[in-house]
Amino acid sequence: MFKKILIANRGEIACRVAATARRLGIKTVAVYSEADANAKHVAVCDEAVLIGPAAAKESYLRGDKIIAVAKATGAQAIHPGYGFLSENAEFADACAEAGLVFIGPPASAMRAMGSKSAAKSLMEKAAVPLVPGYHGDNQDADFLNREADRIGYPVLLKASAGGGGKGMRVVENSAAFKDALASCKREAISSFGDDKVLAEKYLQRPRHIEIQVFADTLGNCIYLFERDCSVQRRHQKVLEEAPAPNMTDERRAAMGDAAVAAAKAVGYVGAGTVEFIANQDGSFYFMEMNTRLQVEHPVTEMITGTDLVEWQLRVAAGEPLPKKQDELRIHGHAIEARIYAENPEKGFLPSIGTLRHLETPQAVNFELGGTLANGLGHPAAVRIDSGVREGDAISPFYDPMIAKLIVWGADRKQALARMSQALAQYQIVGLAANIAFLKRLVEGEAFATADLDTGLIERNHDALFPAAQPAAEGALALAAVALIEAEKDASAAQSGTNAADPWGQALGWRMNTAYTRSLSFTDDYTAAQPAKAYNVQITYRDADWLFNRPASADTHPERLSLMSQQGTDFSIKLGDTAWHGSVRRDGDVFHVFTGGAHYALAYNDPMAHAGETEAEGGRLTAPMPGKVVAVLAEKGKDVKKGDALVIMEAMKMEHTISAPHDGVVEEVLYAVGDQVADGAPLLAFRAA
Ligand code: MV4
Description:
Blueprint: E1 4-7, H1 11-23, E2 27-33, H2 40-44, E3 47-52, H3 63-73, E4 77-79, H4 89-97, E5 101-102, H5 107-114, H6 116-125, E6 133-134, H7 141-151, E7 155-159, E8 168-171, H8 177-192, E9 197-201, E10 207-215, E11 221-228, E12 232-233, E13 236-237, E14 239-242, H9 249-265, E15 270-278, E16 284-290, H10 297-304, H11 308-316, E17 333-340, E18 342-343, E19 349-350, E20 353-354, E21 357-359, E22 382-386, E23 393-394, E24 401-409, H12 412-425, E25 427-429, H13 435-443, H14 445-448, H15 456-459, H16 461-464, H17 473-495, H18 502-505, E26 516-523, E27 533-540, E28 545-548, E29 558-566, E30 569-574, E31 577-586, E32 589-594, E33 597-603, H19 606-615, E34 619-621, E35 626-631, E36 638-639, E37 644-650, E38 653-658, E39 663-668, E40 675-676, E41 681-687
Parallel strand pairs: 1-2, 1-4, 2-3, 4-5
Antiparallel strand pairs: 6-9, 7-8, 7-9, 10-11, 10-15, 12-13, 14-17, 15-16, 17-24, 18-19, 20-23, 21-25, 22-24, 26-27, 26-33, 27-28, 28-29, 29-30, 30-31, 31-32, 32-33, 34-41, 35-37, 35-40, 36-39, 37-38, 39-41
The protein binds ligand MV4.
Ligand MV4 binds at residues 131, 156, 165, 200-203, 206, 208, 232, 235, 277, 287-288, 454.
C-alpha cells in the first residue's frame, strides 16, 4: 500500500479521499489555489502546496504543476477525485511517465470511452444493449435521413464527441430531419470541434440508471449494483438513490452483467460507472461510461457497506478487489441530495458568499470504519460529505456545492423520512441554498411514489415552485422575541457597572404602561417575488407581551410569552400555540428556523435608517418630536453598528436610535426626560 498520496482536487471529494487515507495510515498531500488557502481540504491533509491562482485552468487543471508537487513531496500516487483531471488520459499518461500511480483507470480505457460512437461500436461487439440507431462513419445527410426513417421517429441526434446533453436534437418526422441535422452539426463543431453525429431512437420518459463497476489488475471485475439518478435538472443530478426503485433481481443481474462486459471490453481497472437509460418497461440501453469515482458513490457505499475510496487505493496498489460478486448484498436504501449554494426561485442562480451560519442535521459525521448503526460499517443513518465549514466562502471559481446529504434507511420509505427530517434540520445563513426546494422534491408525490424519469422536475414545476407564502405568525413572533431579548442583553451589557440605572436593566422596561411598539420586517432574499412587509405590534406587559398584526384582516391581540431560551433556540407561546425555533441574526436580518422552514426577516428599524442618512455629518437626529426615555450611549464609548444609543417615545411608540456604523459616541446631547424637537441632533457620533 502507498505511504503517501497526493489529492489533485478540492472541496468535499478531496476531504472524502483524505478521510479514507487517514484511516488507512496513508499520508496526504493537498494542492490548493490562492482562493483555497484556508479551505477545509487544506486543513485535513497532512501537507498542502499552493499551485496557482483561483482559476482552475491555472491551478487544479495544471497537471504539470501537480506532478511536480507529487515528486517534490514524495507522494507515490495521485488521486484525481472527480471533475478536473479525473478523466484526462494525457494526465494519466504523464503520471506514469513521472513514475507516479494514477488512481484511476488506464489511459487507454478513458480514451476508448471518450468518443460516443467508437464506444458504441465496442459495446456492440461486447453484446451490451444499445438504443436502436446508427453510429457509423457515414455522415451523408441523405444516408442519415434514411437511417432515421428506418429507426422510426422520434429520433434523437447526438454529437458523437458530446456529453452532458449538449449537442442533442429531437427530430419528430422525416420532413424535419435535414434542418435538425444541420443545426446539430453546427452546435457539435462549435462545442466539440467535431461535427460527427449519431442517430438513435428517442426514448420518452427515460430513467437514468447507472451501475457501479470495479475491476482490479488481476482480471477481476464486479458490479456493486445500481443507482437511480433520474432526478436531474439540465443534466445536473439533484437526487440519487440506491437501489433503483422497482428493480427486479433479473434486470439488476442483466444490467450488472452488461456493465461488467462494458468494463472488460475496454480493459477497465478501478472504479467506473456504466450509465444506462431505461424505458419505463424496464428495457435498458448503454449510454456512456464514466471513468472516475462519481459524486454519488456514497449511496452505493451505504447499501453495500463498502468504502469505495479504499477499494480504489487497494486496486491502484495492485491488490485484488476486497470482495467477490457473490459476497455483495444490498442492505436497505440510501438517498443522496446535493445541497447547493443556489437560488431555485431565481433559475438556480449560484449564490456566492460566506456561510455565516451553518448547522447540519444531527448526523454522526462519516467516520470511516466506525461502529455500525446500519449493521454495515457506517456509523450513522445520516452522512454529510462537505468541503466547507461555517465561516468558509462559496466562491465564484468552483462548483457551488455546499455538501452532499446522504441518508440510509431499512427501506426507501424510512430513507425518505430521514431525508425529509435531515433537510428540516439544515440551517444555512449567508447564501441562498436549495434546501427548501429539495424538501419539496423529496416530500412531493412524484418522488415519494418513485414515479421517476428525467423529466420529473419539469413535470412537477408548479408543486416544486409554489408562490411565495407569507411568513408564519409564529416565525414573526419568534423574530420579535429574539429582537426584544437581544435588546435587553445589549442594554444590560452596555450599562455594565451602572447597574443602578433603571434604563440599564432592560429595554422592555416600562412594565406598567402597556407600552406598544411597532416592528416592521420584510422578507429577505426570498426569490423572484417582491418582498412582503410585515407589521407587528408588541405591547409590553408585566410578564409577557401582546402580539398583534394591525394590517391583517381579523386582527386581535394575542398573548405572547417566552417559555425558554437557550442561546439562539427559543420556545414561545403565541395564543395557545407553542412555537420552537432557532433565530440567527445576521446584521438586520433575523433568520428564523422553525417547523422545518427558514424565514429570512429583515428588520426595518426606521430610526437606524433615519440615523444612517444623517450619520455622514456625524449626527443622529430625532425622527419626530418626542421625549427621551433612555440614554444607553456614553460619551467616549466605542459602539458597534446596530447598538441602541437613545430611545425616544413619540406618538405613543418607542423608537430606538441605533449606531449606523461601528464608531464612537462623542457627545450625548439630551438626558432622560428631555423633550426634543423634530430633527434635533441627539448625539455626536464618529464612525470608526
Ligand atoms: C437519450 C434520451 C432519450 N433517448 N437518448 C442526455 C445526456 C446524455 N448522457 C444522454 N441523454 C439522453 N439520451 C435517447 N435515445 C434522453 C436523454 C436525456 C437524459 C438522460 C439521462 C439523464 C437525464 C436526461 C435528461 C434529458 C435527456
